[in-house]
Each structure stands twice: as structure tokens, then as C-alpha cells.
Amino acid sequence: MALCAKKRPPEEERRARANDREYNEKFQYASNCIKTSKYNILTFLPVNLFEQFQEVANTYFLFLLILQLIPQVSSLSWFTTIVPLVLVLAITAVKDATDDYFRHKSDNQVNNRQSQVLINGSLQQEQWMNVCVGDIIKLENNQFVAADLLLLSSSEPHGLCYIETAELDGETNMKVRQAIPVTSELGDISRLAKFDGEVVCEPPNNKLDRFSGTLYWKNSKFPLSNQNMLLRGCVLRNTEWCFGLVVFAGPDTKLMQNSGRTKFKRTSIDRLMNTLVLWIFGFLVCMGVILAIGNAIWEHEVGTRFQAYLPWDEAVDSAFFSGFLSFWSYIIILNTVVPISLYVSVEVIRLGHSYFINWDKKMFCTKKRTPAEARTTTLNEELGQVEYVFSDKTGTLTQNIMVFNKCSISGRSYGDVLDVLGHKAELGERPEPVDFSFNPLADNEFLFWDPTLLEAVKMGDPHTHEFFRLLSLCHTVMSEEKNAGELYYKAQSPDEGALVTAARNFGFVFRSRTPKTITVHEMGTAVTYQLLAILDFNNIRKRMSVIVRNPEGRIRLYCKGADTILLERLHPCTRELLSATTDHLNEYAGEGLRTLVLAYKDLDEQYYGEWAQRRLQASLARDGREDRLASVYEEVESDMVLLGATAIEDKLQQGVPETIALLTLANIKIWVLTGDKQETAVNIGYSCKMLTDDMTEVFIVTGHTVLEVREELRKAREKMLDSPHAVGNGFTCPEKRSAKLTSVLEAVAGEYALVINGHSLAHALEADMELEFLETACACKAVICCRVTPLQKAQVVELVKKHKKAVTLAIGDGANDVSMIKSECGRGAGGRLHPAAILSVRLCFPSSPPGPVAAHIGVGISGQEGIQAVLASDYAFSQFKFLQRLLLVHGRWSYLRMCKFLCYFFYKNFAFTMVHFWFGFFCGFSAQTVYDQYFITLYNIVYTSLPVLAMGVFDQDVPEQRSMEYPKLYEPGQLNLLFNKREFFICIAQGIYTSVLMFFIPYGVFAEATRDDGTQLADYQSFAVTVATSLVIVVSVQIGLDTGYWTAINHFFIWGSLAIYFAILFAMHSNGLFDMFPNQFRFVGNAQNTLAQPTVWLTITLTTVVCIMPVVAFRFLKLSLKPDLSDTVRYTQLVRKKQKAQHRCLRRVGRTSSRRSGYAFSHQEGFGELIMSGKNMRLSSLALASFTTRSSSSWIESLRRKKSDSTSSPSGGADKPLKE
User: Fold this and answer.
1) Are 621 and 657 in a shared domain?
2) What is the pLDDT of residues 570-627, one digit of tens each?
3) Which end of the chain is more exposed for a tag (fewer CB within 10 A), N or C?
4) Contacts of 225 (CB under 8 A, 6+ apart)
């Protein structure tokens, strides 16, 4: 990406002095001008052409064009190559120019925005592009932040201000930022004009959540953190005004640092296509060599005798040199085996598939008003080849709408509703919820069913009060009171919001906060706590703490966090309480609830003072500041007293169990990677039908050491191998066998599941054990990884991607999922960057964990955690259930269409080009072409382009309902059966076969044929018209046979292309064009004369029949003897339609004499048995496994048994075939 500032040497540190432009200019910092565009009017043409000719295909055709300009080499006019090349370059250039125009427009809009800059003691209006490092800027409510600013002061007390960071991280909830106390009083312009503090901080980087710096002012040092910064791209909210010091400007801002180039993903078909094109080029060279040798031999043996009639060119002095020139001539003539239109057509088809996803109303969420979005055009067909899905749990499988459900306080559990006998009441038997009418500030939407907890609060139980006091103090929630008594909480996570709301309803109402205080209404009494420190949450600490001083002066630390972290930091005196609380935690987790442990610790004044000093020193450290702070936090968060635990319910999304069941039937393995407790994850696994009671065994790996983990994995493998179900019915495709990890484990037929904890996974991912873990996990039907970090999620994805050579898909909704789904970062359906509200860039999140490679396909869920995952994804929608449609319908169709397109494309071009090869043996290897040069130019861009595009965009083998009903239809894509090297060679063989008949049948007929007037029919022009017409008709009939789903567009394009061919043919051979261009169109009337001969039409008909009949016969026999599953589904559909028609007819001719029957059950015998057997029921998705195992048509199962014994089939061989 081009930027306004020139490239400078990397900075080691940034120094910025307020109100001193002269001092700051000596560092040559970047201005605040941004430039995301790549071109201007002068540079567009050369730069764009330079970029396009970096593509190998374009360079290749440019080379051919240069060859055609050499008279001694070229036997074709230059326009036969330049017309397609210019067309392709022009289309790409127009797209690039349009994209860049919008970038220019966005840049100008942003750079010309106005901001108030403090210059010479007064506020002046300046354009954003003129703002410099060290300037002090005034921002007003709802304004965008112009640069990365150090917050100096604001209109709010204590230097607070509120910002929205949706353009940075996708989160729409407000965040609070605070000026350091020493500058928070600088709200007056005169005092700000005198401010000369200097900021020394880290150099520009892309870490959105981190900032480390120091302010030097008045001979003192003050630590600066991310909480003191306003980043470019944020919007000031609910704050009348604020002042900030520019630290980073323009390209140095974190927003622009995150808009760098990214590596684009490519599909397996892309990689295979590139390989095949190289092979074709090698084949082209071989044909050129053969024909060149033939030319040299012919000229030596025959041509030398006819020098008087066919003299050599002046530059040719030998037969060898004639052969050398002939080689280049044939390279030009035969270059159409690698057509330039291939790559353009592929992109057009992918673009169409992307729009189909965007327009799919069945993937539109009416509740959130969000459609599905294909954010890339390059991966659509790979959606039809997915074998592994890696899913987050919270917000992806669940709704991420948290409800306070249960809690454990001082060893007693609350939340269970008991009936009169003391048993747990069922949902329908629950009494009225707890009445919170005593609390005027209660949230009316909050429901709780156990009245004993409220009674304990009202009775003044100290443990219960301390429990809810912790919940009301230990958080980062912001409160807003729009009307008297109407509180609105804005939380960074739904968990925090649910906990603070629970405390609010039970009488501990969080009312407001300042940078130094928190005000809580405790049972109606306002209590203000002095906030001494916040020890914030992160993915490594997995806990947060606050240190407060109560009105009595006592200092206490309150902490909440994950049980695995907090239970290790408790004081030994809480062992008895720990045992009861642990039992409750296990019980809650077993019910699928999300748990947190609460604890506190009293601190004396002296210890806190010393600790605060160490914290200050750590925060001022220039190097390793975060590690030093973590160490200081670790010190104080020890020997805590256990209070209890909370349990929050996060319900499953609608349609999750059905989606997982359907994807499992499609032989897609689903791995859940979650940060939740093992028991919670397992319970969710059962709820969403990943885990079932019918499974042979669920292995749980919880080892804490390398040896323990290895032993547990070994025992799991032994049990799978010892199972009586372990039979070798595995399968794989021969092309995948060498690349895939082979293991006898994958031949087991029993259903197993693996659950592994985060600490065990850390050992399992080590280099010497990762293959053992992978073998064990891949033999299981379901895998659940608990307590995993974002980095471990990416490592698991990379492990499978690296060793299994399978297509992987990762799906998530939060920032912690970005590392496994991040991708091309914001490329839209047209391949263009979507313009953001500030500038036309999207964030690529390079600050996420480095190293591991993301999944092949990333899917983002637009849920409750912002849109970080969406911004980093390839595809996005709002609910997990849409994944089944994305894969089984759009993905399968995209793969099918692309494969059929490529097969036909290579076929038609070989059929077209190879005719020149055969003709070479009959024209003295003179590089004479068979076809007219205009036909060669228009064949790929006019006569055959639109029909194959229509097939590639619209074709279907079965309707979308059948794709969902029969998920086994998805498996050919996983096995890469529809387009591989074998299918490629079949297409090439068919093309060569067609070219042989296309040339030799007319050649044989014309050798003896005569016209109606008795003259010889065999002339070059008539032969060329006959062969060209036969070719166009044959390839049109062939695409008609290949088309499985006919639309009006298909009909129009196929028959329209034929009509266009004849119209152009007659026009080029007309008197009118000859009169205007006599040197270009010399064959006047040739088409009319040739096509008027019955012999010619008989020849064309014979050629078409002989070319097409073997294809028809082969497909008929294949359909009868060994049909594909899609063939069987189509047949079933036809049978159903006929049965419905017959049923309607029968209903019309029913008896009219009497409607009463003699005996109520005497109509027909056997219906009871039929209904009980289920044979008359509609074929559902869940019945498909038995349907696909019919011995006569289960081509997939045959492939599995024949070609591999190393992997397993999800449907056993003992299933009975379904009979129609």
C-alpha cells in the first residue's frame, strides 16, 4: 500500500514534544496524510500493466504476441492474440481503476476533514492531512479521532472520556479512557498552550491493545498505557470535548499499521490448475518439436526439390533453420491449448457464486437483519471439499446471551428449584420467579427461581453480602442512567453484564464509577469505594482483580476468574470450603453452565504501599513492562480466601444439533475448541449431539505431564484397536493416500470421541507427540478441546492442515478466534477492499498470535462479541445453522460447477487446437492453419465463452432440498473425485479423439466428394468452413449433454452462440465486407457455397454423431450399471413426481356411490407392518447412511473398499440397501 510519507529507517523509540513543531520536525515523522490508493493519472497505465504482466499467463501471451510480429515466424495475424490479451488486460484495468477511484475518493474525504488544532495559543481549523506529531487537538462529541492521541484532559470529571472502537476491533460497546491525573486539569486553552511535556514511547506498531510510554514533564516521569490513548478510527461518545496530544500520525497510526498486505488463500483446484497448465505448456512444446522435426525432414527430403515453386525465405538457408522457425510458428498456432480466457472465466464464475451466497434469503437473519456475506471470491469451490470443521463454542454453538443461573456461596448451592418432596422441579413445574419488587433499581428482565438466596441476602448473611459486593465491584462495566432509576449497563463481555445485573437485583446495585471511585447501592444505602487498582483480565491471566478501600479505610482485593487458575491461589485455610465448592463447580459444569470462582484478600496499608510502589516501577519500565506487571500482579493475587462460585447459562443456538448431525453424515468431522471447563464442554457436546450415548467410548485426556498424556493417548488407541468393531473398511483416494497420514486406527468402525484439556493439549502438541495425538483424534468421530488458548486453537488447526492434507474450516465469533480463521482480510465479493467509515481498509489482526497458519476457510459469526472474527473471515453470517447450507448447498454446487467448467474448457480447447497438429502432417509442416484467422480469434471469446460460463455459474446436479436431504452427496468433493489428474487426462483424451474425427472425417469425405455441378469439393476454404462448423456444433451439443440444470440463460447462450457463429460466418464471407476490406476478407461467398452442399451437411452430421455417440453410450451404461449417488437421487425425484401425479389421478376417479366402508380397517392388508418398518416414510437426512450403502450403486463405498484400507467409512458395510 502506498503512503504519503517516504520510507524512513525504523524507529527505536518515538519522542514527541507538545507545542513544538520545530523540535518534532527534525525526526521527520510522517504527516497525517494517508494514501491507500495505488495510482494517479500518470502512473496508472504503466504501473497497472507492470502489475498485470507479473502474472505468468499474461507474460506468456505477451511473448506470443511478440513472436507474431516476426514475419518469418508468424503464420497468423497479430490480432488473433492481441484481441483476447487486450480484452483481458482492459477488464482487469477497469476493475483496478474503479477500485482505486473509490480509494482516492475515500482518501480525499478523510484527509480533508477538519480538526481544531492548538497553534500559537489559539484553536485553528486545520485539515487532517496538516496535523503533525506534537500538535494538541480538540475533539468534540461524536467526532472521529484524527490521529493516535495521548488524552490530556476532557469535559468529564477526572479526565474521563468514552469512545467507540467499532472501526478498530468491531466492538460496538463503549470503552472508557482516562487522562493521567497530572494533565487532567489542563482543560483551559491558555494552560494547554504552555504545556511542554515530552512523550517517549514505543515505535509505531500494529498492537491495538498495547501501548507503553512515559511522559516527562516538570522534572517528573509518568507511566502511560493503552488506557490513556485515543486511537485513530475511534469515535468520541458521551463526552462534550477532550484534548489530546498527537503521538502517531498518518501511516504510523495503529489503524494504518494494521492495513498491510496479506497473503491470499488459494484453493486446491487453483494449485492443480497451475500444475496442469505447466503440463499443457510442456505438451505444447513437445508438439512444436515434433512438427519442427517434421518440417526439417520434409524440407530436406522434398522441399529442396521445389525451390523454383516454393522458395525459402531470404533468411532461411537450410532445412534445419526452417524447422527452427517452424517450431516457433507452431507454438503460436497451438497456444490455444492454454487459453488466456481460462483465468478470466474462473474469476467470473467465482464472482457469481459469491453473489449467490450474498443473495441467499435462507441465510438471512431476520432478527439481526444481517445477510450472509462472501468476503472473498477465491475459496467458493473449496467450501465443497471441507473435511474438518473447527468451531468455537461460546457465541458460535451457543447464543452468547448469558443468564445468571446458579451460585455457590460459602459451601451452599443456590439456584435449584425443589418441589414439596425435595426433588428438583422440572421446567414446567417451576413456581413463580423470585419477586424483586423490594428493589426499585432491579432489572425487570432478570429471572431467578430460588427464593432462598434472596432470603439469605435480606437476613444479612455476611458471606452472601460479600459475594454480591464482589460482583458489584470487580468488573469494568460502565453504567448509564438515562432516566431516574433506569440503569443501563455496558459491558465488554456478556458474562460481566450478567454478573453485575445479578448483583443489582439482589440489592448490590452498581451505580457509577470515576477513575478513583466506585459507587454501589448496598441494600438501598449508597456506599462509595476508593478504587486503588484494577488488575485487568487477559487470556493468559484468565482472571481480573480490583483493589478497593471501603469507607472504614480497610483495603481489600476482590478477584474472579477461571477455577483452574484461582483455586491454585487460595489460602490453605479454605480447604474444607474448597472441597464443597469444587463439587458444586463440577455439578454446574455437568449441566453445561459457565463457571467462575470468586475470592478476596485483605491487605494492610504498609504492604499495599510497598506493592503499589513496585507496580509503579514496573509500569515505568521501558523493557519487559508487561512481564514485570504480570509478576507484580501474581504476587498480590495469592493466599486469597474463597467466597464461592457463579454459574451462568449460555443456551445453544437454534438448529445447532441438526446442523452437526447433518454435517457428520456428510463425513465432516467437527472439533470444538473452547476455553470452557471440561464438564461444561462435554455437556454442550451432548446437547448439540456431537457426543451421544450410542458412542462406543468417550476418551478423556487430563494428564499434567508428557508421560501421562502419552499413556492416556496410548490406552485410547489400544481400546480402539481391541474393539470388536475394528474392521478394515477404510477408504481414501489414491491421490491422497501418499499425502495423508496413514494409520490402522482410521479403519475402526466404532464411534469414539476424544475430550482433552488445555494443559494436556500443550503436551500433545509438542513435536514428539503431535502425530500420536493426531492419529488418536482423527480416529474419533468428535473431538473437544477444553481450556484452550487462542494460540492453541491455531496450533490444532495447523496440525491437521499440515499432516492430514485435508481442507479445514474454522468458525468463531470473537477476537480469540481470529488466529484460526484470519484470512485475506476484508476482500469483498468483487475482490475489492470494502470502504470503512474512516478509510477504505480492513484490519488484518496481525497482532494475534504469530506462527500458526489459519484454516483453509475462515467463517465469522456476527454475534455478541463484536465483529472481530467477521473482519478477519472469508465468509460471515449470524447463526451456526447456516453453515450446513454454506457447505452442503453453495459449497457443493460451487465445486461441482467449477469441476464441470474446467473439464469442458480443456476438452473444447484440445478439440479445437489439435486439428492443427493433424493438419501439419498434410501441409508439409508449413504451419498453415486449418481455420480462418478470425475464427481462431473469436472461438474462445465469442463462440464458446458464454455457454460454459452459464454452466459454471448456474448448473446443478440435484436441487438444494436434495443436497440437504442427502448429505452423502458431499463426499465426492472431499475425495476430489470430480476434477483431478485422472479426470483431466480423460478430458484431454476426449478432446484429442474429437479432433481426430473432426479432421479425418471431412478430409476423407472431401478427397472424393464433388459439388452439385460436378466440380471438386476439396478446396482449402470449404474444408476450413466444414471443420469449423462441425467443431462449433459438436462442442455445443457436448455442453448440452454436460448441463444438468437448464435455465433460460443456458438455452439463450448455447443456441445464441450457434446463431452468432453462423451470422458472423456469413458476414465475413459476404460481398459487403469484401468491398470494404478486400485484402482481409478474400473468400467471398465461400460459406454460402459450401454450406449449400448436402454433402457438407452430411459430413457435419456424421462428424457430430461419431464424436458424441461414444459419450452418450458411456453415460447411458454408467447410469444403468454403476450410477452415482446424484444419479440415484435424481431418479428417486422422478419416481416421486410420477407417484404424485398418479395419486392425483386416482383421487379424481374415486367412488361416488357411498362414502362409508363396511369395515374400518379392511382397505388393504399390511399397512401396519409397513408403517412400523418405516419404508413408507420420507427419506430424511438421518436415513441417508443406509440409503447410500446399496451394493449396486454405492460407488463411494466401492471406491473405499478398492482403493484403500487405511481410513474408515462413517457408514458401516452391514447396512441394508434401500429399495425403491
Assistant:
1) no
2) 988 888 899 999 999 988 888 878 889 999 999 999 999 999 999 888 888 777 778 8
3) C
4) 211, 212, 619
Q: Phi and psi of 627, rounded to 5°?
A: -65, -40
Identify the DSSP state of 382.
G
* Domain co-membership, 383 together with 452: no
Going by C-alpha positions, the residue among 162, 151, 211, 143 that lies closest to residue 186 is 151
At which of 860, 885, 910 does a domain end?
Answer: 885
- Tell whether residue 962 is among the known ligand binding residues: no
**Is residue 668 within 8 Å of 660, Cβ to Cβ?**
no
| Sign, Cα dihedral of 858, 864, 865, 870 | positive
- End-to-end, the C-alpha distance of the chain in Å comes to 61
- Helix (H/G/I), strand (E/B), else coil: 488: strand
Q: How far apart are CA 195 and CA 188, in angstroms?
A: 11
For range 633-638, the mean pLDDT: 91
137 inside domain: yes
What whole-number distance in Å separates Cα of residue 448 and Cα of residue 404?
8
**Residue 896, Cβ density class (10 Å: 0-12 exposed, 13-18 middle, ≥19 buried):** buried
| pLDDT bucket at 57, cuts 50 / 70 / 90 | confident
Question: Which residues 6+ apart lie within 8 Å of 498 measured at CB?
Answer: 402, 403, 404, 648
Residue 504 labeled ligand binder: no
Q: Rounded to whole angstroms, how far apart are CA atoms 1112 and 1108? A: 6
Q: Is 1148 annotated as a binding residue?
A: no
User: Are 549 and 517 within 8 A, CB to CB?
Assistant: no
Q: Say if residue 633 is in the same domain as residue 658.
A: no
Cα 143 to chain centroid, rounded: 33
Q: The cell 452439385 sits on which residue?
A: 1012
- The response to whether 392 counts as a known ligand-binding position is yes
Q: How many alpha carbons lie under 13 Å from residue 432 in its C-beta half-sphere?
A: 3
- Show the cell assigned to 1017: 469439393
Pairing of strands 229-230, 174-178: unpaired
Q: Is 392 a catalytic residue?
A: yes
**Among candidates 1067, 1092, 1091, 1060, which has minimal Cα distance to 1081?**
1067
Q: Of the residues 212, 243, 259, which one is the last residue of a structural domain?
A: 259
Please give the sequence-ordered ranges of beta strands (E in DSSP) within 536-636, or none if there are none.
543-549, 555-561, 594-603
What's the pLDDT tens digit per position in 298-333?
888 887 777 777 777 776 778 888 888 889 889 888
Sign of the Cα pseudo-torsion (86, 87, 90, 91, in order): negative
Same-domain pairing of 375 and 476: no
Q: Is 842 annotated as a binding residue?
A: no
Our count of domains for the chain comes to 3
pLDDT grade, residue 1159 (50/70/90)?
very low
393 is in an annotated binding site: yes
In the numeric block, the cell 503431535 is attached to: 770
CATH of the domain at 794: 3.40.50.1000
909 marked ligand binding residue: no
Report yes or no: 106 and 36 within 8 Å, Cβ to Cβ. Answer: yes
676 annotated ligand-binding residue: yes
675 is in an annotated binding site: yes
Q: Is 552 annotated as a binding residue?
A: no
Angle subtended by helix axes 79-111 and 341-359, to nearest 10:
40
From the list 204, 206, 224, 205, the residue with the least C-alpha distance to 214 is 224
C-alpha cell at 1133: 425425484
Which residues have a Cβ under 8 Å from the Cβ of 145 and sit 6 or more positions away? Answer: 139, 163, 230, 231, 232, 233, 234, 235, 236, 244
What is the domain range of residue 551? Answer: 408-418+434-651
Q: Which residues are paired to 784 by β-bridges?
A: 672, 755
Q: Catalytic: which of 392, 443, 450, 1042?
A: 392
Which cell numbers in the block locate residue 664?
A: 457428520
Count of CB atoms situated within 10 Å of the CB of 1073: 14
**Neighbour-count burial of 1156, counting CB atoms closer than 10 A to its CB (0-12 exposed, 13-18 middle, 19+ buried):** exposed
